[in-house]
Design goal:
254 residues; 7 strands; alpha+beta
């Protein structure tokens, strides 16, 4: 057994326990849906955490490229895997009692969740740097650091305190991008605001030509998830838009 295989057993157990805990929590949430309403913000964080756990479990296979393993590297890998496991535990506390709404639980533990999320992202950057792939691909570092910035904003900025009382507004955004080739890409953005109970979706497909010209297809959707009694608006779509744009650069002189 190699050093990587020996360590991969422990990492797989930790990440696997995180996935198992999330799935058990989702099953309980579905079972209790008539007692405790499913909170969209909590559900989106659950889905994104599940995806990150599965993705990092797969990405960890790249760690076999390490020629030698040190105790410092071992600690970084353990901290990396444990931090993602803790995200799953905070989303679904083991001592969850009947009558505790998932949205209220998340708001109570929001700063702890986002703090561990920031730590996990920074440890991921450290582990990637130790692997020598910090700038491969070039978009990796700014992509992860922008999540760090959003997490810090969620910790320190989005608490508004007024004389009339305190309230918290949480905005969750998920971004994804896939490049089929240097000129063909697909991007998606989903954002949810738990104050207005609105969810916005943007999907973009681009087939670029020279000088930024080419085909661009964009779909925008705004959906209201609240009800008429609580928000003053009926549940349903608020706006939908499909934009298809093609641009071509013409040369009239040589």
């Amino acid at each position: 057994m190699t050093e990587f295989e020996y360590l991969a057993v422990l990492v797989s157990i930790v990440l696997g326990l995180g996935v198992t805990h999330l799935l058990a929590g989702v099953g309980r949430m579905i079972h209790r849906r008539e007692v405790d309403t499913i909170d969209p913000l909590h559900a989106m964080w659950t889905a994104s955490t599940f995806w990150v756990l599965i993705l990092n479990w797969w990405v960890f296979f790249q760690a076999q490229s390490f020629d030698t393993w040190s105790f410092e590297l071992f600690i970084v890998v353990i901290l990396w895997s444990v931090s993602y496991f803790m995200l799953a535990m905070i989303l679904f506390p083991p001592d969850l009692k009947d009558g505790e709404a998932y949205g209220q639980i998340f708001e109570k533990n929001r700063k702890w969740f986002l703090s561990i999320f920031v730590v996990a992202s920074l440890v991921d950057v450290l582990l990637t740097s130790m692997r020598g792939d910090l700038f491969d691909p070039p978009a990796y570092l700014p992509f992860v650091l922008h999540f760090v910035g959003l997490g810090l904003l969620g910790i320190f900025v989005f608490d508004v305190r007024l004389n009339e009382g305190d309230f918290t507004t949480s905005v969750l955004g998920l971004n994804g991008s896939y490049s089929f080739s240097p000129r063909v890409y697909l991007q998606a953005n989903i954002q949810y605001n738990d104050d207005t109970e609105d969810m916005g979706t943007n999907i973009r497909f681009g087939w670029l030509d020279t000088a930024g010209t080419g085909l661009l297809i964009s779909y925008n959707d705004a959906e209201h998830l609240g009800d008429l009694l609580t928000t003053g608006f009926g549940r349903g779509p608020r706006a939908r838009q499909l934009v298809i744009k093609y641009s071509k650069l013409l040369e009239f002189s040589r």
